Amino acid sequence: MVLAVKEMRYNFYDPSQPTACLAGNLPHWRQEGTTYFITFRLADSLPRAKLAEWLREREEWLLEHPEPHTEEERAEFWERFPARFHRWLDTGYGSCVLSDPRVSEFMERVLLHFDCERYHLGEHVVMPNHVHATVTPVGDHRLSGILHAWKSYSAKQINKRMNRRGQLWQRESFDHIVRSAEQLERINQYIRDNPKGIT
Fold first, then answer.
1. What CA–CA distance (Å, rounded) separates 113 from 96?
2. d(Cα 82, Cα 27) in Å, to the nearest integer?
3. In contact, 22 and 147? CB cutoff 8 Å
4. In what order do the strands lie in the sheet with 119-126?
5. What pLDDT, in 10s, does the model give residues 164-177?
6. What is the spatial distance between Cα 90 and Cα 130, in angstroms, rounded to a whole number?
7. 35 and 50 in a common domain
8. CATH number for 144
9. What are 22-32's pLDDT values in tens digits?
């Protein structure tokens, strides 16, 4: 696994600015110029039955708790859904091709390739079956395009290097707009601590 950190400028959620939500199984909120916490994972990193159960429970919770959410509801949602999702990833399901040092080091280079040009890459870690990062798009570059470039290029190259075929990455990624310096520090600590659970 590869863990890295550098100094960068962060931009937090601004409730006075327009926010958009993209369609998908996961919520994908977007706001110009903000910093995101993102996770993208290998296609086989979670069993389908487990993910289907998670999506069903999440949909039921959202129906029972319409917007706007209280602070307590947001905390409950985070623990029941994003936090649990990330704990499942950390258990090491699937092929875990990113545990090969040659693959994880290559993935690190992919993440850094357009740093300070298309985006500012913050703390990040390459885990055996997923990648975490904080990232701030630059100029006209959008998070969706950045993620697509990372995943498309790395999938072709990793499949070639590992002599494998088929889908490498799960199509959807988890992304979360960072709301404050305090939340960013919790996310950064989570990224720093993530490799500690791997033996």
1. 23
2. 11
3. no
4. 2-4, 119-126, 130-137, 36-41, 174-177
5. 999 999 988 988 88
6. 9
7. no
8. 3.30.70.1290
9. 555 555 565 67
